[in-house]
Amino acid sequence: QMLKLEHPPFVAYGRAFCLIVNALAGSVDEPHEWLETIDQLERFGHSQFANALRWHAGIYLEDHQSLSHQARAALIEQGCVSPEKLVDVIIPLPSKAKR
Questions:
Q1: Is residue 97 within 8 Å of residue 85, measured between CB atoms?
Q2: What is the pLDDT of residue 98?
Q3: Do 53 and 19 form a contact (C-beta atoms < 8 A)?
Q4: Among 4, 34, 68, 83, whose CB has the most other CB atoms within 10 angstroms?
Q5: pTM of the model as a whole
Q6: Count of alpha carbons within 13 Å of 27, Cβ hemisphere only?
């Protein structure tokens, strides 16, 4: 439903959730779709959400594992003392989602 909204940040949020749900279901979208959504979230000023999606992209995308490390480093640089907990609040990491 978020994808049907006309407000671009909501569309980006909806797309991010779709990417993660698809990945959890075993159907990982193309890397460019993840990277475009991350860029959109950054442009809209939603850096924490973008870093959470970046972290997930590093988990699900082959040859992009460094994205998780980049996200963690960016969150720490922003003052986050427990990046894993923050990401779990925004979008649960796969190990937490399976419980």
A1: no
A2: 46
A3: yes
A4: 34
A5: 0.86
A6: 5
Cα→Cα distances 41→16, 30, 99, Å: 9, 17, 28
**CB of 71 within 8 A of CB of 87?**
yes
Tokens representing residue 30 in the block? 């193309």
Per-residue CA distances from 14 to 11, 56, 69 (Å):
5, 15, 24
Q: How many whole angstroms separate alpha carbon 34 and alpha carbon 64?
A: 11
- Identify whether the C-beta of residue 74 lies closer than 8 Å to the C-beta of residue 91: no
Q: What is the tens place of the pLDDT at every residue in 19-66?
A: 999 999 999 999 999 999 999 999 999 999 999 999 999 999 999 999
Task: Tell me the C-alpha distance between 8 and 51, whole Å.
Answer: 18
Question: What is the rounded CA–CA span in Å between residue 85 and residue 93?
Answer: 9
